């Protein structure tokens, strides 16, 4: 464990807490993409299957349980409890266009052609594009609530910090995993224009408005 | 393939 990975995990944790708070406090999931949340639930359930078979540490297991449970809770809040506030009209990104290529890629490029490893690879590739429906929805609605932009910022920051973690591990532990690194870079790059808007607008107290 | 990559990252 290193400071970059810990900061990344905490940023990820914070993002999910912000999202849950936003939905719970405002009793609304307006502006949130349910499709992205479905993809995230798929990411965590396919990645953390080794939760019971491969004990790493208490921290690792607790975080895995947290990510799986909160992603499922978010879907429940969005599609059941606050279903009336879910914005169907703007959450229209075709997730089939993501799932199919990611599945094919997971079957073609992986470290080991075993079920657990292929599912882990699928999860890594899927996570890199899972935010697209959300970013697409923000671009369609043209703006996002400030709390939602904080959620997106923390979520984007987490994998950006992981990149520093991978640099650190390469130099100090000689460890690297190209699949995770390439997917992590792609994932972070997808946030770039949002990061720019967040820093230039939200930090200054303005609302997140996408150029029309 | 190379040594089994320990999946210790989240």
Could you characterize what this model shows?
The complex is a heterodimer of chains A (212) and B (10). Chain A has helices at 3-26, 34-47, 58-81, 96-108, 115-129, 132-141, 146-173, 178-190, 192-200, and strands at residues 143-144, 208-209. A two-stranded antiparallel ribbon of chain A has the order 1-2. The mean pLDDT of chain A is 96. The relative contact order of chain A is 0.15. By secondary structure, chain A is mainly α. With 10 residues, chain B is low in regular secondary structure. Chain B is rod-shaped. The mean pLDDT of chain B is 68. The chains are: A mainly alpha (212), B little secondary structure (10). The A-B interface holds A 5, 9, 12, 50, 54, 56-57, 60, 63-64, 67, 111-112, 120, 162, 165, 177, 180 and B 1-2, 4-10. Chain A: Pfam families: ER_lumen_recept. Chain A: The chain crosses the membrane at residues 62-80, 92-113, 119-138, 150-168, 174-199. Chain A: It is found in: Endoplasmic reticulum membrane.
Describe the structure using short key phrases.
heterodimer; A: 212 residues; mainly alpha; 2 strands; B: 10 residues; little secondary structure; rod-shaped
Helix content of chain B: under 10%
Rg of chain A (CA only): 17 Å
Principal-axis shape of chain A equals globular
Structure summary, number of beta strands of chain A = 2
Indicate the overall shape of chain B. Answer: rod-shaped
Query: Structural class of the helix and strand makeup of chain B?
Result: little secondary structure
Name the biggest interface.
A-B, 18 and 9 residues
The span between the termini of chain B is: 22 Å
Please work out how many helical segments of chain B DSSP would assign. 0
Number of strands of chain B: 0
Biggest sheet record of chain B: none
Report strand % of chain A: under 5%
Uncertain stretches of 5 or more adjacent residues of chain A: none
Oligomeric nature of the chains: heterodimer
Please give the alpha-carbon distance between the first and last residues of chain A. Answer: 43 Å
Q: What's the Cα radius of gyration of chain B?
A: 8 Å
């Amino acid at each position: 464990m290193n400071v970059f990975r810990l900061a990344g995990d905490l940023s990820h944790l914070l993002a999910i807490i912000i999202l849950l708070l936003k939905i719970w406090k405002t009793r609304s999931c307006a502006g949130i993409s349910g499709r992205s949340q479905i993809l995230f639930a798929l990411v965590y359930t396919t990645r953390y299957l080794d939760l019971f078979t491969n004990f790493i540490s208490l921290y690792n297991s607790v975080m895995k349980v947290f990510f799986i449970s909160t992603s499922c809770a978010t879907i429940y809040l969005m599609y059941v409890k606050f279903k009336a506030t879910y914005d169907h009209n703007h959450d229209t990104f075709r997730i089939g266009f993501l799932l199919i290529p990611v599945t094919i890629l997971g079957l073609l490029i992986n470290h080991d052609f075993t079920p657990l490893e292929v599912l882990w690879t699928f999860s890594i590739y899927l996570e890199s594009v899972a935010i697209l429906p959300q970013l697409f929805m923000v671009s369609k609605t043209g703006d996002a609530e400030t709390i939602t932009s904080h959620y997106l910022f923390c979520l984007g920051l987490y994998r950006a910090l992981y990149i520093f973690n991978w640099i650190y591990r390469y130099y100090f532990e000689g460890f690297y995993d190209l699949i995770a690194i390439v997917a992590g870079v792609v994932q972070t790059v997808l946030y770039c224009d949002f990061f720019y808007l967040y820093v230039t607008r939200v930090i200054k107290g303005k609302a997140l408005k996408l150029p029309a | 393939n190379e040594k089994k990559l320990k999946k210790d990252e989240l």
